Amino acid sequence: WDGSGKLNFAKTFQGPSPCTDLRLENGRKLLEKTTVNNKFSVLDMMDILRDEQSGICMSDKGDMFRTTSSQISVLKTGNDKNKFLHCHFFTGTPNPKISLFKPFIFSKQAEIGILTISPPIEIESTRAHPLYVTHRNLTQEQLNEVNLDEFEREGIKEIL
Asked: Among residues 74, 72, 21, which one has the least CA distance to residue 47?
């Protein structure tokens, strides 16, 4: 689609794509490598989503596309003895390599706060929510000051 005329989503995005086909194949290889011992965890999935060499994690280092947010869902059976039945982890920010996966459990009382609510297009054309904007403006020096990896892994151990 060249931007003129009406967008036919199915026609535009159907069929093979060199970019997505390569990412699919690389993702398959990473999964096979990670699950060779028949074990796979949330932490393993986070590592895969953060893999830039494979093209899974698309940073904004000149790439045509970028990862805008990442999600991992842990869906458990009723027999599972852990505290929560289902838990979802979202970055809500670009580039999972330098983002924190935050836990979310859907419930009637769930409150996500205001930091991930996108402003209406009339106010902000990019619709970037406050957390996204703050993350985008962080310098590498600021990111290096915080050990997100350790903080994130400890939190996951507590939840799961």
From this structure: 72
| Rounded Cα gap, residues 51 and 57, in angstroms | 5
In angstroms, the CA 122 to CA 126 distance is: 10
Closest of 78, 52, 57, 85 to residue 69, by C-alpha: 57
Tens of pLDDT along the chain (160 residues)?
788 889 888 888 777 766 677 888 999 999 999 999 999 999 999 999 999 999 899 876 665 677 888 999 998 877 766 666 789 999 988 888 888 898 888 888 888 788 888 888 888 778 888 888 888 888 777 777 667 778 888 888 888 8
- Please give the structure tokens belonging to residue 158: 């507590």
Cα 138 from chain centroid (whole Å): 18
